[in-house]
Amino acid sequence: MExxxxxxxxxxxxAIKAGxxxxxxxxxxxxxxxAGGTTLIxxxxxxxxxxxxxxxxxxxxxxxxxxxxxxxxxxGALVRxxxxxxxxxxxxxxxVLSQALLAGASGxxxxxxxxxxxxxxxxxxxxxxxxxxxxxxxxxxSGCSAIDGFNRTMAVLGTSEHCIASxxxxxxxxxxxxxxxxxxxxxxxxxxxxxxxFFLLPGDTPDRETVMQPGDLITHVTLPPPKADARSxxxxxxxxxxxxxxxxxxxxxxxxxxxxxxxxxVALGGVxxxxxxxxxxxxxxxxxxxxxxxxxxAADAALRDAKPQSQNAFKVELxxxxxxxxxxxxxxx
Length: 333
Ligand SMILES: Cc1cc2nc3c(=O)[nH]c(=O)nc-3n(C[C@H](O)[C@H](O)[C@H](O)COP(=O)(O)OP(=O)(O)OC[C@H]3O[C@@H](n4cnc5c(N)ncnc54)[C@H](O)[C@@H]3O)c2cc1C
Ligand code: SF4
Description:
The chain is an alpha+beta fold.
């Protein structure tokens, strides 16, 4: 691990100022906020992340879950994944989020991991984590070892010739189906970014994963009020029953009227280079009867543009079945 300067911030303005000044004062040097540390410290030990300055944000007052005046939810960036999963409002009104969080990592990790850190967790591509191999995401222009290498766990949607890594988060898939907004504070003030615009496709700059700028601090995530009569569900399929990332997952929010679907939000995990909302699937569901035939048509639409690699064609069918199963659960329970 490289040597780095360490400081602790006690209010958001101080954290942002420290982050901004560290990013501008040292050319090429990087500042990182540390929350739970379950991604960052691992990557620093592997020499993948080499910040010159680490700012501990655990003392910022951002660990509350609050109801908003319009009936939505405001989630502080430092709310631990365990606390969010077990929050009564989340369990009642946003079940898909609670289920996604509980499907991730392990109890100990969820007790440390935070909402902001989970949003920004990095890919689990083995080459990204191995500095002895080329990787465009870690070292732009060096090449992608996964395209002709071990690509069984990689993405099939949103890939480019420069990177095929999947976004590993469960929480992000649920937040995408729930149409969350990410509240960011930076040197130029606050901005609110809909989650659909927060994550970037790899294109020819896979090292840029989100719209975050150096020194930006995520302060909150907000959720719109729950839709009347909507039900939601998260289904995760993986190589073993716990402590494993998704090969494919589906987050669905559905509301029906007399058997006809009048609201649908669909997002897939494990198969996209970013948490993958599928407007195509949603379109195939709206106004249709909540039947298996409708769900199959929606799943076909969601995976229509999938581009599998040499080892992960199975993910297309797995994701299809995962989505059909999640929709069936939500419609029948
Ligand atoms: C063994 C293992 C298994 C796992 N399994 C799963 C799984 O099945 N599903 C899953 O979804 N995840 C899984 N994870 C990932 C885990 O969910 C993440 O590591 C965790 O959510 C990151 O949160 P953190 O608070 O620890 O982030 P940190 O490590 O503290 O930070 C991560 C990144 O976010 C930045 N950051 C943190 N907070 C802020 C903020 N407020 N503003 C700006 N930047 C910020 C940091 O600078 C850093 O770049 C696993 C992790 C491990 C180690
Ligand atoms: S898939 Fe992306 S993260 Fe993995 S080796 Fe290729 S460029 Fe790196």
